[in-house]
TrEMBL record:
The lineage of its organism: Bacteria, Bacillati, Bacillota, Bacilli, Bacillales. Belongs to the ABC transporter superfamily. Its main location: membrane. It comes from Sporosarcina siberiensis. It is found in: Cell membrane. Keywords: ATP-binding, Cell membrane, Membrane, Nucleotide-binding, Transport. The keyword Cell membrane applies. This is ABC transporter ATP-binding protein. It holds the Pfam family ABC_tran.
Length: 336
């Protein structure tokens, strides 16, 4: 399968009163048609900034993208004229946010909102648009869809509202869906239903999904490929199995050990990762995870690890996996 979306060496900085802060540094990933990539990490790791860069939704006044490109069907989205980008947005690449109200207008009937999105991108008669809106509501499992076309967002529960947003996002049959913590605000049962729905629709429509989440449980159920982000970088990248069963980065291992229900053996205690992510404004030259890593070596404090390719699909940025690290400095790391 071919890559539908490629992010190459993306760097994103923000101008602040105290100088520039780099939120994303050298991020690379790709997603194939109909596949799902999960971007995982704690808040502040640069996941949402990466997602918003793809959609060009970052505030223009204070965002700097000094390097990198984002290839979608052989075009660089970062250098696309705004007019063309607006065409891509919604019709070819759609985004779903954690809070469904980000995408919904509280004063407009649901049916009208879906129809507006449709007619913005396609030439449909009013009747055709209404028919398509109805089909989409039925597809995402809204009961009594026909009468619900006339309802306002506040008349839906949180889970139903997120279904509506997914219906809107997929109405134009986009090739890529970017979902930023789409189920984080929902309770566990509803969460599972929404994820099932997304998987179902993905299969039907062959949509590629970029799933942003802090929850490895969600990743396990959804992803083909996983990118683990820390302090603006991808520290480990691989297939779902590589990330879960051949874990190489101490941060990934920490995430796995701190997540309930991921490990099969229930007797294993959950161990939270001590400390908190570094302040991006004062990052030193060493490994950004050094202050929290149980395996930190002398080299880690001053020297940033390079990316080591472990297989065609698996890579990691850690001195433990670098062949130049003397073996008496590198403790054996045991997978989860
Ligand atoms: Fe830990 Fe060093 Fe690897 Fe960073 S490079 S994750 S500090 S062992
Ligand atoms: Mg976020």
């Amino acid at each position: 399968k071919e890559n539908i979306l490629e992010v190459n060496n993306l760097h994103v900085s923000f101008k602040t009163r105290n100088g520039a802060i780099t939120a994303v540094r050298g991020v690379n990933f790709s997603v194939k048609k109909g596949n799902t990539i999960a971007i995982v990490g704690e808040s502040g790791s640069g996941k949402s900034v990466t997602a918003k860069s793809i959609m060009r939704l970052l505030p223009k006044q204070n965002t700097i993208i000094p390097e990198g490109n984002i290839k979608y069907e052989n075009r660089d989205l970062l250098s696309l004229p705004l007019k063309d980008m607006q065409k891509v947005r919604g019709s070819e690449i759609s985004m779903v946010f954690q809070d469904p109200m980000t995408s919904l207008n509280p004063t407009m009937k649901i049916g009208k909102q879906i129809m507006e999105g449709l007619t913005k991108h396609q030439t449909l008669s009013k009747k055709q648009a209404k028919q398509r809106a109805l089909e989409m509501l039925e597809l995402v499992g809204i009961p009594n869809a026909k009468s619900r076309l006339e309802a306002y967002p506040h008349q839906f529960s949180g889970g139903m509202r997120q279904r509506v947003v997914i219906a809107m996002a997929l109405a134009c049959n986009p090739k890529v869906l970017i979902a930023d913590e789409p189920t984080t605000a929902l309770d566990v049962t509803i969460q599972a239903q929404i994820l099932d729905l997304m998987k179902d629709l993905q299969e039907k429509m062959d949509t590629a999904i970029v799933l942003i989440t802090h929850d490895l449980g969600v990743v396990a159920n959804m992803a083909d490929t996983v990118a683990v982000m820390y302090a603006g970088e991808i520290v480990e990248y691989g297939t779902l199995d590589e990330i879960f069963y051949e874990t190489q980065h101490p941060y990934t291992l920490g995430l796995l050990r701190s997540m309930p229900n991921v490990n099969a053996s229930k007797s294993e205690p959950l161990i939270p990762i001590p400390g908190s992510p570094p302040d991006l404004a004062t990052l030193g030259t060493g490994c950004p995870f050094a202050a929290r890593c149980p395996y930190t070596m002398a080299v880690c404090h001053d020297h940033h690890p390079e990316t080591t390719q472990l297989s065609d699909s698996h890579s990691v940025s850690c001195w433990l996996q670098d062949s130049r690290t003397p073996s008496d400095h590198a403790p054996e790391i045991v997978g989860s």
